[in-house]
Amino acid sequence: MKINILFFASVREMFDIHKKDVEILDSENSPNKLLRFLSKKEEGSWTLLLNQKDSIRVAINQELCSWDDLLNDGDELAFFPPITGG
Amino acid sequence: MTIYIQKELFDLDELTTNLKKGDVSIGAIVSFVGYVREYNDASCTNKLIEMNLEYYPGMTEKALSKIESSAKKRWALQGVCIVHRIGKLFPSEPIVAVIVASQHRKNAFQACEYIMDFLKTEAPFWKKEISYEGELWVQDKDEDHKRKSSWILER
Description:
The complex is a heterodimer of chains A (86) and B (155).
Chain A: E1 2-7, H1 9-15, E2 19-23, H2 31-42, H3 45-51, E3 57-60, E4 63-65, E5 76-80
Parallel strand pairs in A: 1-5
Antiparallel strand pairs in A: 1-2, 3-4, 3-5
Helix pairs in contact in A: 2-3
Chain B: E1 2-6, H1 12-20, E2 28-35, E3 48-55, H2 59-74, E4 79-85, E5 87-89, E6 94-102, H3 105-122, E7 125-131, E8 134-137, H4 142-154
Parallel strand pairs in B: 1-4
Antiparallel strand pairs in B: 2-6, 3-5, 3-7, 4-6, 7-8
Helix pairs in contact in B: 2-3, 3-4
């Protein structure tokens, strides 16, 4: 399935891009599984992100979610650091 | 519902006038404005040159409107206006304004604080500080998370 990934703030700088579309196996259907899969396959920034996972927030289709929430084909998945607005 | 995410400075008087306009039932308006501090460290040694504010187009608007709706469910409010700036900001410039109108002051005071406490931890904005010592992404504060949780516990 295809997932549209967005990166913000320090995570965007880590990848040096704002967005990336990835093709993953249907079985990698959570942010947690997707990240582990891409870290194993491509390493680099994905592995860096995996190592910082505890301090990173995820959102699916623009809603904050947990690392084990379900991903579906065509979803927008975002990785970002804790929010610091206001 | 009025939510603005913008690069430009905002005019608090104009926003307040617009919120009040035509509604004779409003007896209280409370507004909060947050500004860029020149120093963000307790020792005041690391002077800020500028701040860069990033957001998540689409999600940020949704998150703000969710916070506003939940405040309206909790208190009787006549109107809410939230403005948050993005992009490059300089010390002493305003970052955010929350303006709340109600019939009596208690609701407006409480709802304004509630909206700010949730905005701080749930609306996706990120601050990067550029000082003479370099660039640094601002870290979230335990205090902000505690303030938000206290509203949930209070229910």
